[in-house]
Amino acid sequence: MAFAQKYPIKLSVFVLLIMLCFMHSACSNLAVIASGNGLVDNRHGKRTLGSRIEDKSIETKTLINIKNSDPAFKNSRIVVVSFNGYVLLSGQTRSIELKKNARDIAKKIRHVERVYNEIEISDPVSTLTQINDAWITSKVKFSLFLNKDFPSSHTKIVSEKGSVYLMGLLTERESNKAIRIIKKNSGIQKIVRLVEYID
């Protein structure tokens, strides 16, 4: 009671988030795509501080190099996400050539292990679509976090036009469990699995 009196707004927001997460409808017919082959590794799912810093560096360098490579990228919306050296390119650009250029640039960045090029050939999405994607990402992250037996800290969730990309260092069993959890969230059009498998 004391907490509720002291933090009335924060508590109400937290309760609202809980309610929204449990009010969503199941999406049992979602397409689940495995982009590329999972790489089996003997690490145990945890990234070091150095890996986290390196991922941020990869994201920054890749995005800057893409934007500076061609003036046409000024009319594109490019999103770069790196997890343990696995790079996801998403967003929109207006030509296949620009999409290929973005991939080639990402591949040349130091410490990049693999590039998943999910950039679409179209005009940039609206702000409303971006807000919806951010909401989907938040819901999915929260639903993974609520499952105590699932290592949500070993994952990265990216949403783009209703498609959810699952990145992370997981066992095959954990990956399958993540897909089951993600499917329970509403508003998702497709799930793409970009997981680095561990023993």
Protein model, in words:
The protein is of the alpha/beta class and 199 residues long. It is 44% helix and 24% strand. It has 2 domains: 25-44 and 125-197; 49-121, 2-Layer Sandwich (Histidine-containing Protein, Chain: A). It has helices at 2-6, 8-23, 49-69, 96-108, 127-146, 172-183, and strands at residues 31-34, 77-83, 86-93, 114-117, 120-121, 155-160, 163-170, 190-197. The strands form 2 sheets. The protein has a 4-stranded mixed beta sheet. Strand 6 and strand 7 form a beta hairpin.
Discrete helix count: 6
* Rg, Cα atoms, Å: 18 Å
Overall form: globular
Briefly note the structural class of the backbone. Answer: alpha/beta
Element pattern in H and E: HHEHEEHEEHEEHE
Percent helix, as a range, is 40-55%
Uncertain runs with pLDDT below 50, 5 residues or more?
1-28, 39-43
Query: What amount of the residues lies in strands?
Result: 15-25%
Distance between the termini: 46 Å
Give the count of structural domains: 2
Largest sheet: 4 strands, mixed
